[in-house]
Amino acid sequence: MAPVELVQRLGWLQKKDYEAWRQGKVAFLEKVIGTNLSKISMAMKALRQVAKDCGWRNSFTAYHGWGKTKGLLRFSRSGDAGVEKGWATHWLRGDKKAVPQEKERGSPRSDCGRNVRDEAKEESPLIDEDEAEAPTPENWHSRGYLPHHDAPGRIQGITCRLHDSLPAPLLARLIEEIGPSRLVDPELNRRYRQRLEALSDAGHGCCLLRHPQIAVALIQVLKKDDGRKYDLIAWVIMPNHFHIVIRQRVFSLGYLVWLWKWALNRRVSRLAAQGLSPSLPEPFWQEEYHDRIIRDELHLLKAKEYVRDNPLKAGLVKRAEDWQWSSFFDGGHQS
Known about the structure:
Layout: H1 3-9, H2 15-22, H3 37-54, E1 57-60, H4 81-88, E2 89-92, H5 102-105, H6 111-123, E3 140-142, E4 147-149, E5 155-161, H7 168-178, H8 186-201, H9 212-224, E6 230-237, E7 241-248, H10 253-273, E8 290-293, H11 297-313
């Protein structure tokens, strides 16, 4: 966890402002952070305290400009060495020597690590983006928002939401109620994820994935490259989001998610031109997606159960297998 990532997740640092800073268009980062220095200091202090309690180790990252701006970027107006060092400190959980094997990923290193991996993940095995393992450069990447992990052969749970599935006022109220410590406190994070998923399942927004033609088109898109670009394990199409569990091959998650969104938009445009479905609004998708490494067989079982039961928990059906936009649909035949 890095301070820059922390203020982004809290909604204090917007994409355009972060990119402007990285491009050298902004003199120092704090200038474009949408809150006061007192709140920033409080959030960073909470991050340091949790890192200390959990035994996380620190490392320092030099932020250089993008493109023609190659120099070292500044975080604060004052340029104070202590402040700059605080911003450049990244907190890592565990040992960064190697990515553990599947069986090792399920074994706790410490009470703090166990809480993050097992307790927070148990409630919602797909949508929690935090990983207890330290990132490795060849597999982890970020576009300035959520961290993502790519590794051929890994099983991943992915969630994509429509742009209006989480109304801004309700999301802002939830973030305010839980507070900034949710990003570093496992219990608060678990509560936040539970309520976030409930908010998703409440059916906010246009819910165009409920439209039969659009749902069928998305299923066709997801199945099209099964066995070639990835191995499809489980999926469910909800009215305003979808969950999918796949085994990665050589293609990155970012590419696959882009491909699914692009292919659906293209198919729906053709359907709308024929009067067979409504047109998609712009923007239609949330820009980011949530991915989650499946650690072992037990975690995979829980992830598949989560996917299967999502329509039931959302109150859309009386029996999970009755939801026809799911890999668990049994045609309405009870066993």
